[in-house]
Design goal:
six-stranded mixed beta sheet, 2 domains, 23% helix, globular
C-alpha cells in the first residue's frame, strides 16, 4: 500500500435541496433568515420550503497509485465533480473517508483558488504558497506559467476583469507548472478554445510522464482514451466500475442501450435540449426497419435509417445531419442532407425521412449517432439527439481476421498499390 496516494472508502455526499444551513451557502442562509424575520414582523405566515434529499455520491470506494492517470466518466449528474471536490478538500463527505498523500493541484471550475481582487501575478504566488512552495521555487517557474497561459499584457490586472477563457488558461498553467504530486482536472477545460485544449492535453501527458498522478474528468471520451490507462465510470452517484480505459468506455457506451445491449432507451434519453415549445422533434428511429433496436450489420453492407419527425410549425428547406461516431467518441462519418441536395419541408404533422447508406468502409465495432435537424448550417438546431446507439458492424469474412485490429475506424480497399518506376 506504500505506493497508494489516494484511498477512498465509502464516500457519500448528501445534498438537501431547498434547505439552508449545513451544506448550503452562507449567503442563502442569511437571506433565508432575513426573510423569515421580516415575515414575523409583518405577522405573515412563514413560507415553508419543501426539502428534497439527493445523494450526489453513494458508498464510493477505490484506490489510486502514484503515477497513475485515471479518467472519470459518466453522464451529467453522475457525481464526478462532487467526488473531485471531496478529494480536493473543497467540500466534506457526509459519510466515508478519503486519504490523500501528496500536494494536490486542482482545476475544478472557473475561478477556483483565485482571489478576484488580486492580479494574475499575485495569484500565481498565492497559489504556489498554498501548495507549500517557497517564493524562489515559484519564481523559477513564473515565466513558464505566464508563457503557457498567454496572458502577458494582463498579468498585472485584477483577475476579476479576466474573461472565462483567460481565467482557465491561467488556472491550468498554475496547476500544472507548480508541480503538485496529484493534478485534478475537471471538464472546465471545455471553456478554452480548441488550440488551448490541445495544449492542455499535451501538458497533462507531460505531467503523467514525470510520474505524477492525474485525475481527469471529461465528456470527451477520445481525450480520456488517449490520456488515461484506467477509468472510473460513475452513474447516479455510484461507482459502477474502475478498470482499463478501453473496457470501461465500451461499457459506458453499451449502457446507452438497455440491459440486453440491443434495445434503445426512449429517445428523450438522448435529447440534448428539452424545449417547451419546439418547432419539431425527432420522435422515432429505425435502422433496417427495426424501431428502437440496434441491428448487427455486416461490414461494407448497405443499411437504411428511418427518422420520424413530429412537426408542430411549418418548416421549409431544413437540413438533416447524421454524425457517426465510434466507441471512442471519434467522428468517423458525417452525412449531411444538403450535400446530396435534399432539403426537408413539411406542414405540421408526422413525417418520415429515409437515409440509405451504401457500404461505408468502417471497421467492425459499435457505432453511435448524433442526429440533428436545423434550418441552415449557421442556425440553432430544431432538435438534436446525441450518442444514440445506431449499428453494430460485424466481420462476416469480409476481411481476413488478421486485419480486424483496433488500428483505425476505416477499412478502405478503394486504393491501388504499384511499384514506382
Amino acid at each position: 500500500m506504500s505506493d497508494v496516494v489516494i484511498q477512498a472508502e465509502g464516500l457519500s455526499k448528501l445534498y438537501r435541496l431547498g434547505a439552508a444551513g449545513p451544506g448550503g451557502m452562507l449567503r442563502e442562509a442569511v437571506y433565508d433568515a432575513a426573510g423569515r424575520a421580516w415575515a414575523r414582523l409583518r405577522r405573515r405566515p412563514v413560507a415553508s420550503v419543501p426539502v428534497r434529499e439527493v445523494w450526489a455520491l453513494k458508498d464510493v470506494s477505490f484506490s489510486i497509485k502514484s503515477g497513475e492517470v485515471v479518467g472519470f466518466i459518466g453522464r451529467n449528474g453522475a457525481g464526478k465533480s462532487t467526488l473531485l471536490k471531496i478529494l480536493s478538500r473543497i467540500t466534506c463527505p457526509t459519510r466515508g473517508q478519503a486519504w490523500i498523500r501528496g500536494r494536490v493541484g486542482s482545476l475544478l471550475e472557473v475561478g477556483t483558488g483565485f482571489h478576484p481582487e488580486l492580479t494574475g501575478r499575485e495569484n500565481i504566488f498565492l497559489n504556489g504558497t498554498l501548495l507549500g512552495m517557497s517564493r524562489r521555487d515559484i519564481a523559477g517557474r513564473f515565466d513558464a506559467i505566464v508563457d503557457f497561459a498567454d496572458i502577458g499584457p494582463f498579468l498585472d490586472t485584477p483577475v476579476k476583469r479576466y474573461s472565462s477563457g483567460m481565467y482557465v488558461r491561467l488556472a491550468f498553467a498554475v496547476a500544472a507548472h507548480l508541480e503538485p504530486e496529484i493534478l485534478i482536472v475537471d471538464e472546465v477545460l471545455a471553456v478554452g478554445d480548441a488550440a488551448f485544449q490541445k495544449k492542455c492535453l499535451g501538458k497533462m501527458k507531460d505531467v503523467a510522464n514525470q510520474g505524477r498522478t492525474v485525475l481527469f474528468v471529461s465528456h470527451n471520451l477520445g481525450a480520456v482514451s488517449s490520456l488515461t490507462q484506467r477509468c472510473a465510470y460513475l452513474h447516479a452517484g455510484r461507482l459502477l466500475t474502475l478498470g482499463p480505459t478501453g473496457e470501461v468506455v465500451n461499457r459506458y457506451y453499451g449502457d446507452a442501450a438497455d440491459a440486453d445491449g440491443q434495445t434503445l432507451h426512449p429517445l428523450e434519453y438522448y435529447r440534448r435540449d428539452h424545449e417547451d415549445d419546439p418547432t419539431l422533434r425527432v420522435t422515432g428511429l429505425a435502422v433496417n426497419g427495426l424501431p428502437a433496436r440496434v441491428p448487427e450489420v455486416a461490414m461494407l453492407s448497405d443499411f437504411h435509417v428511418e427518422i420520424t419527425l413530429e412537426v408542430y410549425r411549418p418548416v421549409h428547406d431544413a437540413s438533416l445531419t447524421l454524425i457517426l461516431k465510434n466507441e471512442y467518441d471519434q467522428k468517423v462519418a458525417i452525412l449531411f442532407s444538403w450535400d446530396q441536395g435534399y432539403r426537408f419541408s413539411a406542414a405540421p404533422g408526422t413525417h418520415q425521412v429515409r437515409l440509405h447508406v451504401r457500404g461505408l468502409p468502417l471497421a467492425p465495432g459499435a457505432y453511435y449517432a448524433d442526429i440533428g435537424i436545423c434550418q441552415s448550417t449557421a442556425s440553432v438546431p430544431f432538435d438534436v439527439l446525441t450518442d444514440v446507439p445506431l449499428i453494430k458492424l460485424i466481420n462476416q469474412h469480409q476481411v481476413p481476421l488478421w486485419q480486424e485490429r483496433p488500428w483505425g475506424a476505416v477499412h478502405w480497399n478503394e486504393v491501388s498499390w504499384s511499384r514506382a518506376a
